[in-house]
Amino acid sequence: MDRYYYKSKINHEDLNLNVFIYSGDKKELWNKFKEHHYLSADMNMASTIFVCYLDDILVGMCGVLPVPSGVTKHGFRPSRTVILPDYQNLGIGTRLSEFIGDYYLNKGYKFYYRSSHLRLKTFWEHSPYWVATSHNAKKRDPDSNFSNANIKEDRICASYEYMGHDYTLPHIEIRIEYTDDINIALLKEDLKLLKQNHYVCVITGNVNEDNPIDLACQELGIRTQLLYYRGKLIGNYKNKNIITKYDEEMSRKVRKYYDLCRVND
Predict the structure, then answer these.
(1) Roughly how many angstroms between the first and final C-alpha of the chain, as a whole number?
(2) pTM value?
(3) How confident is the prediction for the chain on average, in pLDDT?
(4) The domain at 4-165 falls in which architecture?
């Protein structure tokens, strides 16, 4: 058996699905799937490959690549997803995509999916865990990083971001700029507390580097968004309160808010 270094299970109705990160010969694996991909027989061998087993039967795979973008940090997206024909229409592909999404979200990263596949589009539209991006329902740009030579330029594609199952919880957005007055240890404890019953998003930093707040959020599996772009405060956050000092007083305010929310629940 090939070697793997990560394993988890997905339970979907009566299906026992096991997902691994593959570390064997990628070309050999792709040869088992390439004829069944609906668009192309090519795959970028730099992909991180997730393989899916139904009990002990290999039924699917998904190759994942980083999103090359100057406006998104730590974004990932599938390059190829294939479920073998005998196991299609069982919900395996969509459950596999959500497992992979959870894998990256737990690292504080982002997971995007762009496809012209009608079944995926329908699934995303009706799921509370996926959100349409600004590229949704648009034609493919031949110069885009997501382009594919095998797809007609006038073909409409769906583009969604996986937000995770916590996305159905009440949302809280924290805008915070890293300074020497930010107590990271205290902030981490409070974020961990908020994450118990909120969907937390932290607005901080810029695209070029990870500050200590970014790293703390990655450790906790909390989503971050950019506060600055090209050295300038992003327009959505102008004239809004931005935390530049996180101390005992700020922590008490956060915990008071948490206690109030818990009482109201």
Answers:
(1) 49
(2) 0.85
(3) 85
(4) 3-Layer(aba) Sandwich (3.40)
